[in-house]
């Protein structure tokens, strides 16, 4: 199949109806479409681009909206559809179609990560329940507070931010 595409590109004419041709490949459709700059795209409305197929028939198509988890790489024009890039896994997310990739929330001390940041959904953090603590906020759970042993005196209480501390008696 790759050789068919290579032959198609190698044998493509450089002009069509005395208009220059720019060839682009769309991953969601086969065969590749010819888009002719300066030809019929004037009829397309805002939010549309002109797409012509190999047979020479073309039409205005609605511009693609980047889905959740993606942000716009290049805008839609009269001759090309919008292109999108995925948000970086674990560091950025976009929770709305057509949105931008934003930095993921980082859980704080005293919280645990209920759900890791996904390209389409932000991190979900929760406070540690009573009797537990978390020093960094990066784990998926909280640690249970230590219990005083015989011959130990408590010098600080256990909170969501720190473990209980003791000194020998």
TrEMBL record:
It is found in: Membrane. Keywords: Disulfide bond, Glycoprotein, Membrane, Receptor, Repeat. Its main location: membrane. Residues 43-84, 86-125 form the TNFR-Cys domain. It holds the Pfam family TNFR_c6. The keyword Repeat applies. TNFR-Cys repeats lie at residues 43-84, 86-125. SUPFAM superfamilies: TNF receptor-like. Disulfide bonds join 63-76, 66-84, 104-117, 107-125. This is TNR16-like protein. It comes from Mya arenaria (Soft-shell clam). The lineage of its organism: Eukaryota, Metazoa, Spiralia, Lophotrochozoa, Mollusca.
């Amino acid at each position: 199949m790759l050789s068919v595409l290579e032959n198609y590109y190698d044998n493509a004419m450089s002009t069509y109806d005395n208009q220059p041709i720019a060839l682009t490949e769309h991953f969601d459709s086969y065969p590749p479409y010819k888009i002719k700059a300066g030809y019929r795209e004037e009829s397309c409305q805002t939010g549309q681009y002109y797409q012509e197929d190999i047979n020479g028939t073309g039409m205005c198509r609605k511009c693609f909206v980047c889905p959740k988890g993606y942000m716009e790489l290049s805008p839609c024009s009269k001759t090309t559809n919008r292109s999108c890039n995925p948000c970086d896994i674990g560091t950025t997310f976009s929770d709305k179609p057509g949105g931008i990739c934003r930095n993921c929330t980082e859980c704080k001390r005293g919280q645990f990560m209920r759900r890791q940041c996904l390209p389409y959904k932000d991190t979900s953090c929760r406070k540690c329940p009573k009797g537990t603590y978390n020093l960094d906020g990066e784990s998926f759970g909280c640690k249970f507070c230590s219990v005083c042993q015989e011959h130990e005196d408590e010098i600080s209480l256990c909170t969501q931010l720190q473990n209980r501390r003791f000194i020998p008696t």
